Amino acid sequence: MIDIEWPFYTHMDFYGQKKAERLFQIIIILFGIIGFIIGYMMQQFSVTIYSVLLGTFVSVLLTLPPWPIYRNNPIEWQKTIDSRIYSDISAQSLITKNFESL
């Protein structure tokens, strides 16, 4: 597999994902409500549709890129384990358990 090094951050932590999802929902709902009210007063359903489309565009700009506000809680990953060491240990423990049971 090709390992590509990007010059910018491409990740978002779990709390950032939750924050982005909540922001997306709030923006879409607000633009939908405001568009519905204005469209109802103007008797133009197209105003409601354009308002929701504008809200979708704004929410995509605010939530799709991994902005720094979505990367405040980095994940602490465990260190890698050398599997050869543990496979040797488990094989030795199986051998000693078999001899002890006899």
Automatic annotation (TrEMBL):
Keyword Transmembrane helix (UniProt): yes
Pfam families the UniProt entry points to: SPC12
Subcellular location: Endoplasmic reticulum membrane
Transmembrane regions: 23-42, 48-70
One example of a Gene Ontology biological process annotation: protein targeting to ER
Alphabetic keyword roster: Endoplasmic reticulum, Membrane, Transmembrane, Transmembrane helix
Membrane topology: Multi-pass membrane protein
Signal peptide (residue range): none
InterPro entries on file: Spc1/SPCS1
GO cellular component: signal peptidase complex
Family label: Belongs to the SPCS1 family.
Reported function: Component of the signal peptidase complex (SPC) which catalyzes the cleavage of N-terminal signal sequences from nascent proteins as they are translocated into the lumen of the endoplasmic reticulum. Dispensable for SPC enzymatic activity.
Protein name in the entry: Signal peptidase complex subunit 1
Organism: Rotaria sordida
